[in-house]
């Protein structure tokens, strides 16, 4: 049997990746707690415990850092959406997808999302990795809604386009996050409200 050599990352490469992941984690925390505009590269460097010069070796700017965090979030969202069982009926699948999206966004293990993503994405080209990831996620949601509409599971008169942006809009709404924290609503109420708007009673 022919043996193939596996190239393992060097210690230096492992340290580089670990530091980069730590930087992204710190930036996520700061953008949520302080906001993108208030966060500085000094804040990030201080939280990680590295010099600003070292930080700039990983990310060329605050914009670059924020988009890298957004890319991580988009990938995590896609991974979670993809975990919904494909063999469910179209109605059950969309219902489960709504629960999954809202839980991922607002539940105890929620992924970071911050208002600056929308602003930053407006200045990126269509070929940018973040824009491609956002398109992939949107297409995934569209596909589930299209299947439900084809099977007659959507409420009469609800368009596919509107349904997609009701769900994606709920994911991107920081006001809902504030309402959950203040006790005005809950993750379950948000999911049930979206289902009531989109799905016929099962």
Description:
The chain is mainly α and 202 residues long. It has helices at residues 11-33, 41-48, 52-58, 62-82, 90-106, 116-121, 129-150, 160-171, 174-182, 187-198. Helix 1 (11-33) packs across helix 4 (62-82). The longest helix is centred in the N-terminal third of the chain and has 23 residues, at 11-33. It is elongated. The N and C termini lie far apart (56 Å).
Give a topology summary.
Blueprint: H1 11-33, H2 41-48, H3 52-58, H4 62-82, H5 90-106, H6 116-121, H7 129-150, H8 160-171, H9 174-182, H10 187-198
Give a brief outline of the structure.
This protein has helices spanning 11-33, 41-48, 52-58, 62-82, 90-106, 116-121, 129-150, 160-171, 174-182, 187-198. With 202 residues, the chain is mostly helical.
Shape: elongated
Extended strand count: 0
Termini separation: 56 Å
Taking all Cα atoms into account, the compactness measure Rg is: 20 Å
Report the portion of residues in β strands.
under 5%
Q: What is the number of helices?
A: 10
- Report mean pLDDT, rounded to a whole number: 87
* Helicity range: 55-70%
């Amino acid at each position: 049997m022919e043996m193939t050599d596996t190239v393992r990352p060097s210690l230096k490469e492992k340290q580089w990746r670990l530091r980069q992941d730590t930087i992204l984690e710190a930036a996520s925390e700061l953008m949520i707690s302080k906001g993108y505009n208030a966060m500085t590269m000094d804040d990030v460097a201080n939280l990680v415990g590295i010099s600003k010069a070292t930080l700039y070796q990983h990310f060329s700017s605050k914009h670059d850092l924020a988009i890298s965090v957004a890319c991580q979030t988009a990938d995590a969202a896609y991974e979670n959406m993809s975990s919904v069982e494909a063999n469910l009926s179209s109605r059950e699948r969309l219902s489960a997808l709504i629960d999954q999206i809202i839980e991922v966004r607002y539940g105890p293990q929620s992924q970071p999302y911050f208002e600056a993503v929308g602003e930053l994405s407006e200045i990126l080209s269509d070929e940018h990795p973040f824009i491609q990831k956002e398109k992939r996620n949107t297409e995934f949601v569209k596909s589930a809604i299209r299947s439900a509409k084809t099977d007659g599971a959507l409420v009469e008169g609800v368009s596919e386009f509107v349904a997609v942006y009701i769900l994606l809009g709920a994911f991107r709404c920081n006001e809902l996050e504030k309402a959950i924290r203040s006790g005005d609503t809950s993750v379950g109420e948000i999911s049930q409200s979206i289902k009531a708007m989109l799905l016929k009673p099962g």
